[in-house]
Amino acid sequence: MASEVNAVGGRRLFSGRVGLTALAAFAAVISVLPVLWMVSAAFKTRSTVTDGNLIPTEFTIQNFVYVFTEVPFVRYLWNSFFISAVITIAALLFHSMAAYALARLRFPGREKIFMAIFSTLLVTAPVVLIPLFIVARELGLLDSYAGLIIPAIFNAFGIFLLRQFYLGLPKELEEAAVLDGCGHWRVYWNIVLPMSRPILSALAVFFFLANWNAFVWPQVATSDQSLTVVQLGIASFQTQYLSNWNYILAAATVAALPMLALFFTFQRQIVESIKTSGMK
Asked: Is 31 helix (H, G, I), strand (E, B) or coil?
């Protein structure tokens, strides 16, 4: 009798795993298919770009040649890379310091400060867009790299994730360093930061990806063509060549490749950071 029950339970467990695996495979195909179609269409000619075939019938690389010769696309890529890199580095530094203070230091109002920071996650970007524009204009930050970088540094999600990670670190290491004469700064720099590499790597991917794909704030904050980021460049390219989807998709493919490479390089750190940063 017990063996029959175990057999029935095993079959149910197996069928459940098969169902979940099939569902995951279906979701993966649905998610990856648009990317594959974009890459495929980037190598098609203008006459075949909308034929619906995943494999190009007429293969060409002239779309990429056209993108890099007819518009300053390299400049757009550089602007996006520079802005995203500076924001990522500054955000990781300031967020980790703030998160360490909120997780380890004892001072009046600590929990209230954390809740105030965390509550900003409930405020969407369009709500603060106009006030942010007015402040940037009054400070003379419009049409400058500073105007594109400084407002994007703060992110409550990064502080929250790092704080939850630091709460899970063993206090014994920090207490031993304090007994050896280390101050809070040395504990943070020499002990906490090296132990935070997995979560910092994951946040670096999140921050870089978010700012690489930024569109609304760069569109509002600058009208200088030399400061155009890659997403605005693609948008203007689409406006200029509305029917030439082969050029548009070639530009989108070039813009997407660095992000795909970054994600596949650090995907393990992203998964591990979510598992170990207090998402419970």
From this structure: helix
